[in-house]
Design brief:
single chain, alpha/beta, Rossmann fold, seven-stranded parallel beta sheet, 14 helices, globular
């Protein structure tokens, strides 16, 4: 029987990132007597979220991976060999573009530091004592997999999302990817699109790939009340891939009364404010900042919402969309990654990734005025019930892990 699982995360449980892992870890802790969590970094928010008693959190190797000084210093001053990295860089043509070269350098510094933990026996001891090593992302921590000593006992599972899976989102270059794939016992895909990519891109046998979407909890139904004002919500980090400013640009094309609320923070906040500041008087808007999960769910439980919008250029399967569907909120989303697996005419509308703002505006108006609108709300909840319920997807995932 599997008793110890070693989990590699980016920041969890530090700060508020990887909030969608908060529910999964509860199921893992209920199923494994010993759960050890090894974050990659602390990040900028020092708080540690509440965890089950059998979860142990180890000190991460990095304080803040956005600190170039920390990355360079820790990447240089360690005992790991340089030659394998130089060979890999030449064989994969890392010099062919500035972006590829930057990826290679970052990988060189970061992975050398992580490998040094193996050489110092710290990480090797943890892996030797674990039954399962579960890497929550296909980048960063999991890039040490090719360098793990042969003969270590744990079964290796890696969850692949979007940005950590698709090579075209990484300038066509993910160092050591084939060597990494060869050492993995189970590749966990969060979408059918991701599963198909793993099959076709890397030729992984189907039995080594397990489809397991990220699940969300049942927190009730949104209390919808029809109003003269259409309330639209979006929720994401304000970063380039999420393209939040496009929502503001699209809203300029509408002459109906709209209230737009965005939840999330990020470096492009000023860009969104600049676009939103030019909205006409019939559009009110608010950047509500980053909320804790419970606070966001309370909002969905208590405030009538007409539509949820996601305009990402790339996705795995967006958890923010799953959450909206769980409350019975119709969704308009771009056809990115596996989004179309949960958004359809049954619960909203899929639009092209490269949509025109006028098209998004017209889609909003069409859905709001549709005679079928209430059916969309019912359909949203049904889709979530079928595909995204945490009490369905996570027990299935745990059973898979225990069979490794």
């Amino acid at each position: 029987m599997n008793s110890t699982i070693l989990i590699f995360t980016d920041r969890f449980p530090y700060g508020r990132s990887e909030s969608f892992f908060e529910e999964e870890i509860k199921y893992i802790c209920n199923s494994f007597p010993t759960v050890i969590i090894m974050p990659f970094e602390r990040g900028t928010i020092p708080e540690i979220r509440s965890l089950p008693q059998n979860a142990i959190v180890l000190n991460p190797p990095y304080n803040n991976s956005k600190s170039k000084a920390e990355i360079i210093i820790k990447g240089i001053f360690n005992s790991s060999q340089l030659i394998p990295f130089i060979r890999e860089g030449f064989s994969c043509g890392a010099w062919k573009s500035a972006k590829r070269l930057k990826i290679w350098f970052t990988h060189l510094f970061v992975t050398r530091k992580l490998i040094s933990l193996i050489r110092n026996k710290e990480l090797t001891k943890l892996l030797s004592d674990a039954d399962i090593a579960y890497f929550y992302w296909g980048l960063r921590w999991s890039q040490i997999i090719p360098f793990l000593p042969i003969g270590l006992s744990p079964q290796i599972a890696v969850r692949f999302h979007g940005s950590d899976l698709y090579e075209h989102l990484n300038s066509g270059y993910i160092p050591w990817r084939k060597q990494q794939i060869n050492r993995i016992n189970s590749c966990i895909a969060v979408s059918e699109a991701g599963k198909n990519y793993l099959l076709t891109r890397y030729g992984i046998p189907p039995e080594k790939i397990f489809l397991s979407r990220i699940g969300t909890p049942d927190c009730g139904i949104n209390p919808y009340e029809k109003s003269d004002v259409v309330r639209i919500v979006s929720c994401s980090n304000i970063v380039p891939v999420k393209r939040v400013e496009l929502i503001a640009i699209a809203l300029k094309n509408l002459n109906i009364k709209i209230e737009w609320i965005h939840f999330g923070e990020g470096p492009l906040k000023k860009k969104v404010i600049n676009e939103a500041s030019g909205l006409p008087a019939n559009i009110s808007w608010r950047l509500a900042g980053e909320l804790k999960h419970d606070e966001l769910y309370n909002f969905y439980r208590n405030v009538s919402i007409d539509l949820f919008i996601n305009v990402s250029s790339s996705e795995g399967v967006p958890v923010s969309v799953m959450e909206a569907l769980s409350f019975g909120i119709p969704v308009i989303a771009t056809d990115a990654g596996g989004t179309s697996e949960i958004v359809s005419e049954k619960c909203g509308k899929i639009i092209p990734v490269n949509f025109q703002p006028e098209f998004l505006a017209e889609t909003i108006k069409t859905l709001i005025k549709s005679d079928n609108y209430m059916a969309l709300r019912k359909g949203a909840r049904q889709v979530w019930e079928e595909k995204c319920r945490e009490d369905k997807v996570y027990p299935e995932f745990i059973e898979h892990l225990k069979k490794l």
